[in-house]
Amino acid sequence: DTGVSQNPRHKITKRGQNVTFRCDPISEHNRLYWYRQTLGQGPEFLTYFQNEAQLEKSRLLSDRFSAERPKGSFSTLEIQRTEQGDSAMYLCASSRPGASYNEQFFGPGTRLTVL
Amino acid sequence: AQSVTQLDSHVSVSEGTPVLLRCNYSSSYSPSLFWYVQHPNKGLQLLLKYTSAATLVKGINGFEAEFKKSETSFHLTKPSAHMSDAAEYFCVVRGSGAGSYQLTFGKGTKLSVIP
Predict the structure, then answer these.
(1) What residues of B are in contact with residue A92 (Cβ under 8 Å)?
(2) Model confidence over A34-93: pLDDT tens digits?
(3) Would you call A45 and B32 a contact, using CB atoms and an 8 Å cutoff?
(4) Number of A:B CB contacts under 8 A?
(5) How confident is the model over B33-78, as pLDDT tens digits?
(6) CB contact under 8 A, B107 and A103
(7) DSSP letter assigned to residue A103
(8) Does B30 touch chain A if contact means CB atoms closer than 8 Å?
(9) Alpha-carbon distance A67 to B5, whole Å?
(10) Beta carbons of B43 and A106 less than 8 Å apart
(11) R_g of chain B, CA atoms, integer Å
(12) List of residues 6+ apart from B77 with CB closer than 8 A
């Protein structure tokens, strides 16, 4: 079990630039989640995939944000025209198929700093 | 909507003394509640979960939590703190219906353990 991996671990960008993060879930997990964690706060749900289908999106996910999961394996989260308020830790989690709720396993996160 | 409130942002204990991290929940239905721990530069890890079975839930590393419906509480305890317990702890509630895969996190409690 190699766990959930995220790349890059850190990203520094200038306001207005586009950034893309990648998440590789645990191999047999068909469910994948994205969360955002700002300083001093708990993670906030952004979106959820079951296989390649994006089933839930938070109102936090503005039109500058887009997530994909082609072929139901890895996922990418893109932020266009970044703003300083986008600075946060972006967390990915995955869970296995089966019951209505299974434990979500989290990756180490990608820390984004927008200058 | 469901939510959790962590009553302390920071708790400091001496090694070998008991730990108490407090969490109150708000939910219009019988909730599923969790405690996650986040060590620096590591992913969130599930400590324990309550899903309407036994009200006293035992987790990893000697932690346990008791679900008290009358008090709408789900406090996390450990009889004897260890230096390795120093981390941030999050109380979490699962969504319902279409949002049942969403986790809603509290703001976190940072636990410091004094040698």
Answers:
(1) none
(2) 999 999 899 999 999 999 999 989 888 889 999 999 988 999 999 999 999 999 999 999
(3) no
(4) 55
(5) 999 999 987 889 999 999 877 889 999 999 999 999 999 999 999 9
(6) no
(7) P
(8) no
(9) 30
(10) yes
(11) 14
(12) B18, B19, B20, B21, B63, B64, B65, B66
